[in-house]
Design goal:
The complex is a heterodimer. Chain A is an alpha+beta fold. Helix content of chain A is 26%, strand content 17%. Chain A is built from eight helices and twelve strands. Chain A has a five-stranded mixed sheet with strand order 2-1-5-3-4, with helices on both faces. In chain A, strands 8-9-10 form a three-stranded antiparallel sheet, with no helix packed on it. In chain A, strands 6-7 form a two-stranded antiparallel sheet. In chain A, a hairpin with a 6-residue loop joins strand 11 and strand 12. In chain A, helix 3 packs antiparallel against helix 4. The longest helix of chain A has 17 residues. Chain B has one domain: Alpha-Beta Plaits, CATH 3.30.70.20. Chain B is 23% helix and 19% strand. Chain B has five helices and eight strands. In chain B, the strands form four sheets. Chain B has a two-stranded antiparallel ribbon. A two-stranded antiparallel sheet of chain B has the order 2-3. In chain B, a hairpin with a 4-residue loop joins strand 6 and strand 7. Classes of the chains: A alpha+beta, B alpha+beta. The complex binds iron/sulfur cluster and FE2/S2 (inorganic) cluster (FES). Iron/sulfur cluster (SF4) binds next to helix 3 of chain B. The site of iron/sulfur cluster has 14 residues of chain B, from helix 3.
Chain lengths: 281, 160
């Protein structure tokens, strides 16, 4: 899979279209980067490891998990003054200095992980990351729950991108949670469950011709030829709608005689190679 | 670069060498072949043909992709899946030719990217049904190629 810089965010897109590059300093290295790219992506290109849970190249950056914090200094600032920013949504600019793993940065990530550990004590992803930062046990009161949602809202953004906007964050403050308020909007595509960094979204995929997610059960459509699951009827209808909205012809009438396709052995066919007729020009 | 991947379906003998070459070069872990991006078929009634992404000018996969994850490579002209993909599978449903696919072995959405300008399928196709060149092979050249492959199945033609 080829790596590209995300340009979904409008400012980033506008700035990157000018093909401008800027020079920044990351961990003491002077590097060229496209103007408007986010620090996280520039660091990723350089194989500098910044932990991040809520960033996805295809989705709008959101800055929810706070793990990707880095220290920055803009040109002209006093030498002792640095600021903490979330690198997943901070665009680079000329002369920017970045520290991705300084003491201050690590201390902040520790606090974030300490808090997350109290929120989702059962999550392996958070547990492993916390141990990496030397947090064995949380210093706060643990929630008594099996839930592993860290409120990064990747599912909400993914569902928006898919065009359903079925998932929303509900309530406020410490009681905030994600759910599907309108079950009819969900098409059972499982994108949210696959993207969730802590596997917090429960689903039963394709059990006895049924699929269950967000407490809604779906039927499944399978490919006649290969027997592979194509998706739920609601999902196929959504893609058909998207395609026809964009002026594409829907290939209902194009179904080829796939059931008759069968495999032949190489040797019996090789004999025929010389006998292929030239088509009339 | 003016080279293109020329597909001449009637020359296909359904030997599946292209599928094997594809699945080997696209494999990510040893021993786990990837799902091939190219398919060869035998339809009852004696027709063999090979099916490959057409890199459509107005591609359905690109049109339905919600996050612009399918990007055309300006050098090869091929549409490639990038890391923006959110794995929704819309492109698989939308492609009228069945050339977008999901590879369960590597857990990713796949399509032919002409191996970034060095397609393995064309390298090993014994009959000239698939060639990476500036023009399709003439009948004489195709015959010569299949004759060469029959005597030396693993030879790679000069220039490829
Ligand atoms: S599976 Fe990936 S490439 Fe295909 S339409 Fe969805 S996001 Fe785009
Ligand atoms: S990746 Fe930046 S805040 Fe989550």
């Amino acid at each position: 899979m080829r790596k590209v810089r995300p340009t979904l965010d409008d400012t980033a897109r506008m700035m990157s279209e000018t093909n401008e590059t800027v020079t920044i300093t990351i961990d003491g290295r002077d590097v060229e980067a496209p103007a408007g790219a986010y620090i996280l992506d520039v660091a990723g290109e350089l194989d500098i490891d910044i932990p991040s849970l809520c960033a996805h190249p295809g989705l709008e950056p959101f800055g929810a998990c706070r793990l990707c914090v880095v220290e920055i200094q803009k040109p002209g600032w006093d030498d002792w003054y640095r600021q903490l920013v979330t690198s997943c949504l901070y665009p680079v600019a000329d002369g920017l200095k970045v520290w991705t793993n300084s003491e201050e940065v690590r201390r902040n990530r520790e606090v974030v992980l300490d808090l997350q550990l109290a929120r989702v004590p059962k999550s392996d992803v958070i547990g492993d990351l916390a141990r990496e930062y030397g947090v064995e046990r949380t210093s706060y009161a643990e929630r008594d729950t099996d839930d592993t949602c860290i409120m990064c809202a990747i599912c909400v953004r993914a569902c928006d991108a898919v065009g359903r906007s079925a998932i929303a964050t509900l309530s406020r403050g410490p009681d905030k949670y994600v759910d599907v308020p309108d079950k009819d909007a969900c098409i059972g595509c499982l994108v949210c469950a696959h993207l969730c960094p802590t596997d917090a979204i429960a689903f039963v995929a394709d059990d006895n011709g049924k699929r269950t997610i967000w407490d809604k059960q779906f039927d499944l459509v399978t490919d006649e030829r290969t027997g592979e699951v194509l998706g739920t009827p609601e999902y196929l209808e959504h893609v058909r709608q998207r395609a026809t909205d964009r002026g594409l012809r829907w290939p209902d009438e194009m179904k080829h005689e796939s059931a008759k396709v069968k495999r032949r052995t190489y040797s019996s066919k090789l004999a025929r190679v010389g006998r292929i007729e030239e088509p009339a020009e | 670069m003016n080279e293109r991947l020329y597909v001449t379906p009637y020359r296909c003998i359904d030997c599946k060498i292209c599928e094997q070459a594809c699945s080997l070069v696209k494999s990510k872990r040893p021993g786990v072949p990837a799902r091939p991006r190219v398919q060869s078929f035998n339809v009852e009634g004696d027709t063999d043909f090979v099916l490959l992404c057409l890199q459509c000018d107005e591609a359905s996969c690109q049109a339905v992709c919600p996050v612009d994850a399918l990007v055309r490579n300006p050098v090869t002209g091929a549409i490639e899946v990038t890391d923006r993909c959110i794995e929704c599978g819309f492109c698989v449903v939308a492609c009228p030719f069945g050339c977008m696919d999901y590879d369960p072995a590597n857990n990713e959405y796949i399509k032919c990217d002409v191996c970034y300008g060095d397609p393995a399928c064309a390298k090993y196709c014994p009959t000239g049904a698939l060639v990476w060149a500036e023009r399709p092979l003439s009948e004489a050249e195709a015959e010569q190629r299949s004759a060469q492959r029959t005597t030396d199945p693993f030879s790679v033609p000069a220039g490829d």
